[in-house]
Amino acid sequence: MTSHDKDILAALAAPGAAEALLRIARALERLAPESAPAADLDRADAFIWHAERSALSPVTKVNRVELALLRGIDRVRDILAENTERFARGFAANNALLWGTRGMGKSSLVKAVHAEINARLAGTPGFRPLKLIEIHREDIASLPALMALLRESAHRFLLFCDDLSFDAEDTNYKSLKAVLEGGIEGRPANVLFYATSNRRHLLPRDMIDNERSTAINPGEAVDEKVALSDRFGLWLGFHQCNQEDYLAIVAGYARHFGVDLDSAALEAGALEWATTRGSRNGRTAWQFIQDLVGRSGKAVE
Fold first, then answer.
1. Residue 180 neighbours by CB under 8 Å, 6+ apart
2. Largest CB tally within 10 Å, which of 7, 33, 98, 102?
3. Cα–Cα distance between 232 and 176 in angstroms, integer?
4. d(CA 296, CA 108)
5. In sequence order, which residues have a C-beta less than 8 Å from that of residue 128 and are 6 or more positions away?
6. Considering only CA atoms, which of 127, 173, 174, 133 is closest in space to residue 150?
7. Structural domain boundaries of the chain?
8. Which is nearest to 110 in space by CA: 167, 57, 62?
9. Domain 46-238 in this protein, CATH class
């Protein structure tokens, strides 16, 4: 035994040492983060992932519109709904990247399809409602922890990240690549990942171009950057709608909410609204209808 060890033993034997150690232990317990309680997955069909405490919080009322109200995106709507239904039934399905013009219903489609598939399959023997989990872009690095939490569950999960993109200094995209397809464990069979983005390759064009211009082998550098998008089996493009589709969207909303206005006045107002905002898309149509319904003294439910 060294002299240092003897000094430690002597200090522990001193009067009051045990009480001091107990106070230190209690202080450390207060500083340590509490373990998050296990989520009650039967409490809701939608949750938000909180990475800082590794917890899922239920969302009792999801902010979404009905699938039938989403117009001008029929093809991508049907593809995503079919892919989601296969997954909900336990069959093979692909991760999906919904990319393109802002305001054309990318995130609305994901939420609407989730509700539609659960309603469509309700009552099917052995079917468990598909759970929608939203993960924020800044929490992508915590995906492995979330995957580990969900892997052994009897439920099936649709992970959803809205407005996913990465900047030049952000290296989290490498973690996402590994989680989606490249890691040893891979994506759990009961988990599917849907993301929306304004960018097809999730990375800024100048970042990709810079890699091409400065790398010794430009092709390899660009491949590294665009490989993230390749992890998504489905690429669903959303493009600016034409005037006909825009007016069809407005008309669909107007019928649904009982807007009492003749078609000519409705179209004229919708076009003026779009002109003042410099865009013609589903979000613009929704905002126009909210204005009309609000001016009539009603609420949009």
1. 95, 187, 193, 231, 232
2. 98
3. 11
4. 25
5. 154, 155, 156
6. 133
7. 1-32, 46-238, 243-295
8. 62
9. alpha beta
Among all chains, which residue has been given the structure tokens 């709904």?
81
Residue 230 is which amino acid?
D
Q: Longest Cα pair distance anywhere in the chain, in angstroms? A: 96
Cα gap 112→201, rounded to integer Å: 24
Please give the Cα distance from 207 to 169 (Å, whole number).
10
pLDDT tens column, 49-85: 999 989 999 998 999 888 988 888 889 999 999 999 9
A 10 A CB-CB count for 296 gives 12
Burial (Cβ within 10 Å: 0-12, 13-18, ≥19) of residue 162: middle
In this prediction the pTM is 0.77
DSSP codes, 14-50: STTHHHHHHHHHHHHHHHSPPPPPPP-TTS-SEEEEE
- What is the per-residue pLDDT across 226-278, written as a single tens digit (0 to 9) for each? 667 777 889 999 988 889 989 999 999 999 888 888 899 999 999 999 999 88
Q: What angle do the packed helices 3-13 and 17-31 form, to 10 degrees?
A: 90
Q: How many CB atoms lie within 10 A of CB 54?
A: 15
User: What is residue 299's predicted lDDT score, i.e. its pLDDT?
Assistant: 76
